[in-house]
Design brief:
The protein has one domain: Purple Acid Phosphatase, chain A, domain 2, CATH 3.60.21.10. It is α/β, with parallel strands linked by helices. Strand 9, helix 7 and strand 10 form a beta-alpha-beta unit. Strands 1, 4, 5, 6, 13, 14, 15 and 16 form an 8-stranded mixed sheet that branches. Helices cover 25% and strands 25% of the residues. It has 9 helices and 17 strands. Belongs to the CapA family. Pfam families: PGA_cap (PF09587).
Length: 443
């Protein structure tokens, strides 16, 4: 019996030893498949078929997809093409407003007898937060600011206090164009004193000049790495002749010369071009054929934005699509008239204007600059009378209605404002709903 037990124990020991040896032998073989091995990344065969998921049911898996890159020993992505390159785009804001005028009734309420000077800042207080959003912020100065020495006067031959320039800068404008029909109201001396004051404040100017060198100089204003070329022209100077020895004093509309100026800016490497155009017919709420023909031709020649003034009422705006030689399409913007920004004119929407806010995008990789969203912001000149003296404030009218910030108005005033806002919106929409397609570019 004892012998049987010993034989059974020996058999058990032999079985155990035999199993260990087999395990050792198996460990020396190539590992073809193990349950705990990580999934193997399959090469991309270019087929859309997925053999493991033959139906349309979506499955979530932690396993790498066939297109996933393999990590290195530290878990870093070893596929250089894993992250697609993203074009770098720079965004900036272009803004502009219409005519800054100075009729004689605007003076008394702005005069500070204690300081013996004028303060026009209150004109702009409510629109300043809007204008401060601009990277380029333009305005048309439709009066000389030659100061007291040449005498203050309103229509028909204007001259305003120099403090108006301080207020323009306070408002947020950094670019002033003054090629308009009132540029010569105080002659060459008026131009000289006006430019002297504006430039002393650090404002960029365009449209008048004291020398031929100044007149021919390229005006390029760079913001956020985007270079804007600037030009400005007027249809005339109310019959006042340009100085014989200074025919360049005011930039006049001349189609061939303007196209040449556009080409010069293009050659200098600007990203986009703005042209301030003083043109059209006063108090007409729609552009005439000459306006449309000229503005569209300038866009075809390479201009990107036309900032129009002179009619003293808001006119429509339109976008223009231009086919380029490389097959691409360029988008231009024509603002035919921005109306009065500040003046004493009233009625028939002459006391309304508009601030345009335009997004500018530059693709740094391709070097292409384009026009994005266009937003017209209607404004109204609120005029109130205190102690027989008028006071003026430019109001962003839709915001003011929403915030209920308007004071001293009757029900009839509110009805008139709402009616005029509707009229302005109809003008904006009348030419902007669909882009105007140019047949060819002049570039």
């Amino acid at each position: 019996m004892r012998i049987v037990r010993l034989l059974g124990l020996a058999l058990i020991i032999f079985t155990i030893l035999s199993g260990c040896m087999n395990g050792a032998l198996e460990s020396d073989k190539p590992n073809e498949s193990k349950v705990n091995d990580p999934p193997i990344t399959q090469p991309d065969t270019g087929s859309d078929a997925n053999p493991s998921n033959s139906d349309d049911t979506s499955t979530e898996s932690d396993s790498p997809s066939p297109d996933s890159p393999s990590p290195d020993s530290e878990g870093n992505d070893t596929n250089d093409d894993a992250t697609p390159s993203v074009d770098k785009v720079t965004d900036a804001v272009w803004m502009a407003a219409g005519d800054v005028m100075m009729h004689m009734p605007q003076l008394p309420g702005a005069y500070d007898s204690k300081k013996n000077r004028y303060n026009f800042n209150p004109f702009f207080t409510q629109v300043k937060p809007i204008l401060d959003q601009g990277d380029w912020t333009l305005v048309n100065l439709e009066t000389p600011i030659a100061g007291k020495s040449l005498g203050y006067s309103g229509f028909p031959r204007f001259n305003a206090p120099t403090e108006l320039a301080d207020a323009v800068k306070y408002a947020g404008f950094d670019i002033v164009t003054n090629a308009n029909n009132h540029a010569m109201d105080r002659g060459a001396k008026g131009i000289e004193l006006t430019l002297e004051k504006l430039q002393k404040l650090g404002l960029v100017t365009k449209g008048t000049a004291r020398s031929r060198i100044e007149a021919n100089a390229l005006t390029i204003v760079e913001r956020k790495g985007i270079r804007m070329g600037l030009l400005a022209y007027t249809y005339g100077t109310n019959g006042i002749a340009l100085p014989v020895k200074k025919p360049y004093a005011v930039s006049m509309i001349d189609e061939a010369a303007m196209i040449h100026d556009i080409a010069q800016l293009k050659k200098a490497g600007v990203d986009f071009i703005t042209i301030s155009l003083h043109f059209g017919t006063e108090y007409q709420t729609a552009p005439n054929d000459k306006q449309k023909t000229l503005a569209r031709k300038l866009i075809a020649a390479g201009a990107d934005i036309i900032a129009g003034s002179h009619p003293h009422v808001v006119q429509p705006y339109e976008t223009v699509e231009v086919p380029e030689p490389d097959g691409s399409t360029r988008r231009g913007l024509i603002i035919y008239s921005m109306g009065n920004f500040i003046s004493n004119q009233r009625g028939d929407t002459k006391d309304y204007g508009v601030i345009f806010k335009v997004d500018i995008h530059k693709n740094v990789s391709s070097g292409i600059t384009s026009i994005g969203d266009v937003e017209p912001i209607p404004t109204w000149v609120q005029r109130s009378k205190v102690n027989n003296v008028y006071h003026y404030t430019i109001v962003p009218i839709e915001q003011a209605l929403i915030s209920n910030s308007l004071i001293d108005l009757t029900e009839n005033d509110y009805a008139s404002i709402n009616q005029n806002i509707t009229i302005l919106k109809q003008r904006f929409a009348s030419m902007s709903a669909e882009p105007y397609i140019l047949q060819e570019s002049l570039n």
